[in-house]
Write a structure and sequence with these properties.
heterodimer, A: 87 residues, Glutaredoxin, globular, B: 397 residues, alpha+beta, Phosphatase 2c, domain 1, 10 helices, 31% helix, elongated
Amino acid sequence: MAQRKIAVKICVGTACFVQGGADLLLYEDFLEPSLLERCVIEGTGCLGGCKVQDAKSGAPFVEVDGNVHANVTVDRLRQLIKEAIDA
Amino acid sequence: MNGIFIDVDYSQTYKAGQRIGGDVFLQSKEEKGNRVVCTLSDGLGSGVKANVLANLTAHMAHKLSFGPMHLTNSAKIIMNTLPVCNERKISYSTFTIADVRSLEEKGIAVQLVEYDNPPSMRFSRDLPVPFEVNSIDLKREGAFKEETIRQSSFTMQEGDRLIMCTDGVMQSGMGKTFPLGWRQSGVSSFISELIGRHPEISSRELAAAITRKAYALDGYAAKDDITCAVLYVRRPRRTLVVTGPPFTKERDDLLGRKIREFDGRKIVSGGTTAQIVSRLFGAKVSVDLSCWSRDVPPASKMEGMDLVTEGMLTLSKVATALEQKIPLHNMPNDAVRRFVSILLDSDQVSFIVGTKINEAHQDPSIPVEIGIRRTIISRIRRALEQHYLKETILEYI
């Protein structure tokens, strides 16, 4: 049976792009091939998270299987994808 | 500007070893844009002397053609005024004047006056179109040769071109590739073939292709000044740039209507703006991750739009690129390059600027400076008008 692919959307809006989103777009360089093949990664317009005034939620935002995550770094993205695969 | 646009441009290569040209091309446009006068002159000899003769001739012809005087009189005045060459003991310079007026729906009226330049060529799409020529003998006192002026008038329609060359083009390759040079017939079939392959080729590109070919035929050392001017009647290439969400939500529909009604290329710049347009048009936005650089977020695709980009970062880079006249081929393959390329390919650029402020951009912890949309758009407009002679229109929503 074909494995289900994890849907990953990286926000490329202005605020996300300048606060770390640009690093995430280099996912092909830092994600292991075993993880890459399990995901469909695409860019997305503003997910709206940056407009919420909340100390915990900051750019960049990434959506993994429909859930929006804030403050995503390269390591955090790898971790989120692993969690989604295990789930 | 109405439904028709007169695209005039020229290209020139100096005779080998010369640092100044003996061919002079002038063009001026009336402010309202419905009359264009072009003058092409080739002065006797080459270098500074020829340049002085050609400049004198072109400027006189140009000024006189705006006056009420009959052209044969103007021609006599020009010939009587030209200084006599010290070596050849004659005063001589050729000219072509094209006086072009827009008649709105009826097309473009052309009055053509030629003296000793190679006959101008007229094309409809890729087909040469012959036109009737009246010859007027000047019978000037003190003339050293027979002086015949060729006068013609005709109407051109959208898709028509008028091509004016100096003898440097017609005689290129003489004694090398061709015994008598490239000649009218050779140039004409070259143009036909080129237009056939690129039906929308701009005046700048066509003129450049002709002079480049002539230069190559001369073995990359021009035997004479090579000049070609092209006048192309076409629809103005219009581009609409939509950026920023409307100040109030109620105006979203108005924005949608304006975009839908616009005839030309369409750029949407801004993530939120793209979402609004996407909702209004029921078209999906998909980010194109193949096209981005460190400073510029990726472009996106949306059906019906020619380009969808991020907003403020892209726009400020576009403004800088235009202000510094950075050549397209020196830019990385990102959204800014695509944006600038569309702008430079347009005659008229309309901006619809939404004035709503994005509060996320006001966060002081953002590491780069994000300017104000209106200011950046003004910079882009100023650069387009001053450096690239484009017409721009601005509207806030």
